[in-house]
Amino acid sequence: MKVTPLHDRVLVKRLAKEEKTKGGIIIPDSQTEKPAEATVVSVGPGRRAEDGTLIEMDVKKGDLVLFAKYSGSEIKLDGEEHLILREDEVLAVIVR
Asked: 20 lies in a domain?
């Protein structure tokens, strides 16, 4: 299924959870938090300014982004969890 977000929305897929610490200790599933990093799957066209001009998105497909813990709306696409965020809920683009 293909989903294209509307306006200034971004469709992201969270990165996999860490199951071990750097020291090798295994973290139980009940104690792990969902990661606040994700890969951008799809972006909307942007939002409209008051004068009607289109303000393009700062993020693009494939970007690695950081977002707030409780932001966005969770959805399932083809059995996998994704989030739809507003562009202003994206805190940063991670460059590696």
From this structure: no
**CA 80/CA 93 separation, integer angstroms:** 23
CB < 8 Å & 24+ apart, contacts of 19-22: none
Summarize pLDDT for 8-28 with one digit per residue, the tens: 899 998 887 655 555 666 655
pTM confidence score:
0.75
Question: In this structure, is residue 69 part of a structural domain?
Answer: yes
From 87, 81, 63, select the one nearest 6 (Cα to Cα).
87
For residue 55, is it within any domain? yes
Give the position of tokens 């989903």.
3
Helix or strand holding residue 54 (H, E) = strand 54-55
